[in-house]
Amino acid sequence: MITCNGQPRQVAAGMTVAGFICSLGMNPDLLAVELDGRVLAREEYEQTPLAAGARLELIRFVGGGSGGR
User: Fold this and answer.
1) Domain range 2-60, CATH class
2) DSSP symbol at 37
3) Which of 23, 5, 9, 2 minimizes the C-alpha distance to 59?
4) pLDDT confidence of residue 4
5) Is 34 strand, coil or helix?
């Protein structure tokens, strides 16, 4: 069991950050990921396993503009 964005989640043994992101149907290119208080580089997602008790925060990038100002 891990905590993702404050919610408990079951993950398979050995699941990586990349695998978890894919299981949620999210695009890793549009996310910032913090694991146990440390921001991960995208290159780390594939090699970083999620251990029991891990605290994961997934932050989505949102585009926007100034509305023409």
Assistant:
1) alpha beta
2) T
3) 5
4) 97
5) strand
